[in-house]
Amino acid sequence: MIYIGCHLSVTDGYEAMGKTMCRFGGNTFAWFTRNPRGGKTRPVDPADVEALKTLLQRENFGPLVAHGSYTMNLCSANEATRLNGLDMLTQDLQRMELLPGNLYNFHPGSHTGQGTEAGIRQIAEALNAVLTPDTGTTVLLETMAGKGSEVGGSFEELREVIDRVEYR
C-alpha cells in the first residue's frame, strides 16, 4: 500500500484535516502538534478526535505523522530550555495517545556548546522519561543538517540515541 498526503494545518481541528485530505485524494497527512515556531497549543476536543478516527477508518487512511515544534530542544545546555522541551514532548505524546498507532516526528535539538555526547545522552534521557511499554505512538528522530551544535546530523548520532532508549 502506498500512502500519499501532505502537511496540513490543525487550525480548523482534527476532523477538518481528514476531510481536507479526502478532498485532495490522499490517504495520510502530517501536522504540527503545536505552533511550530513556539510552544503554544490549544486544548484538543475529544469529539473532534473521535470524528477524525471514524473518518480515518472509513476512508482506509494509513498512519499519520505529527511533527513536534521546532523550538523543542531536549539537549540544550540551558536546563530551563531542556525542561520546557521535555514538557512539550510529554504533552505531545499524551495528545498522540488520542490517535494511537501513529507517528510523532521531532528534531533532536542542539547541544548548544556542551558537546555531542552530552546532547545524545540528554535526548535519550528525555525519551526514557516519557516512553513506556504502553506508548501507542512510534517516535521518529528526524535528521538534522549537522551544522554547528545540532545533534542528529549523522545516522550514527541518531543510532546512539536509539541505542540508549529503553522502550523502542
Our estimate of the beta-strand percent is 5-15%
Q: What's the helical proportion of residues? A: 25-40%
What is the CATH architecture annotation?
A: Alpha-Beta Barrel
Radius of gyration: 16 Å
- Low-confidence runs: none
Coarse structural class:
alpha/beta
Quote the distance from N terminus to C terminus: 24 Å
From N to C, what is the helix and strand string? EHEHEHEHEH
Secondary structure layout:
Blueprint: E1 7-8, H1 14-24, E2 30-32, H2 46-58, E3 65-67, H3 79-96, E4 103-106, H4 116-130, E5 138-141, H5 155-164
Parallel strand pairs: 1-2, 2-3, 3-4, 4-5
What does this 3D model show about the protein?
- The protein is α/β, with parallel strands linked by helices and 168 residues long.
- It has a single domain (7-164), classed as Divalent-metal-dependent TIM barrel enzymes (TIM Barrel).
- It is 40% helix and 10% strand.
- The protein has five helices and five strands; from the N terminus they run βαβαβαβαβα.
- A five-stranded parallel sheet has the order 1-2-3-4-5, covered by helices on one side.
- Strand 3, helix 3 (79-96) and strand 4 form a beta-alpha-beta unit.
- Helix 1 packs parallel to helix 2 (46-58).
- The longest helix is centred in the middle third of the chain and has 18 residues, at 79-96.
- 29% of the residues are buried.
- The model has no long low-confidence stretch (mean pLDDT 95).
